[in-house]
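CORE FACILITY INTAKE
Project code: CF-77B
Contact: R.S. (postdoc)
Sample description: multi-component assembly, two entities in total
Requested service: structural model of the whole complex
Turnaround: standard
Below are the sequence entries exactly as provided by the requester. Do not edit them.
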Amino acid sequence: MAITKRNSGLETPALWFEDVAVGDVLPDLVKEPDTRQLVMYAGASQDFVAIHYDHKVAAEAGHPKVIIHGALKSAWLGELVTGWIGSTGRLLELDVSYRAIDFPDDTATCVGKVTGTRIEDGVGLVEVEIGLRNAEGQITTPGRALVSLPTKSAFS
Amino acid sequence: MTTSEKSVITDELLAFIGVKSKPATYDIERHAVERFACAIGDPNPLYSDVDAARVSSYGGLIAPPTFFRSLLHGDYPTVYPEPFAHILDGGSKYRYFEPVRVGDQITVVRKITDLFEKHGRMGTMLFKVTEITYTNQHGKDVATQATTTITYGTGEKDSGVGDH
């Protein structure tokens, strides 16, 4: 679902395919989650698995406190990428893997790096490696994304 | 697997591979999208600012990429016989084909595509791979989500264990 001049509306792209190169680093997205956000997310997503809001259940599972929903971490990684590409880019693929647990009241930093660029059928595609880094510097939640970006040639 | 570790993957469980959940259809409401965006803490105006969204390349409000998590699948024709009490989310792989717009109707169908087990520190763990397809009111698939869910352990079942 790449966009071209034909259906781009009134917008001038904020990020062009030609301005992206392998090795480029996405602006970090820093999150400071608290238990209130976990409750908000449980309600909004209807994920009521108790380990995300009940300290007793979390303790029985061996955790010092309630744990962050994996899907909330996916949402942040989605924000990292969609915020970077702006409203003229399109997110095509988002893969996220929950390798380690994260806790509220710890700073979580979403990071990303461009690993590939190519043009397919006139569409500018960019491959991005993404991850959520905890306060200890460990990537707890690695992933990848594929996005399309408008090309200057298609707009000229 | 040693002989002392009995497989939890019974014929009854295997029979679930490929079975589809009953379709569940949702109206994509503006305030549900706004509430979701607020809960994840994403200030992108495409999810809440009608005027900004209208002049964007989308031409109107859309839903965030993981909004699909709030669209629960319907029941399977028979109850999935979950053998374990506790649940872990292993991850998701999303593929996006069309934006989801406020005002759309999205139909959710889920099917189990694989079941396998591993034996580790927490005893036997059952891995369930599912594929969820989201289709709009025009009959177009807008996205798919492949999920991996891990269940393990006995005792009182986690609340919500049956929903995933």
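Facility notes:
- Chain A has one domain: 14-155.
- Chain A touches chain B through 45 residues (CB under 8 Å).
Invoice: internal transfer
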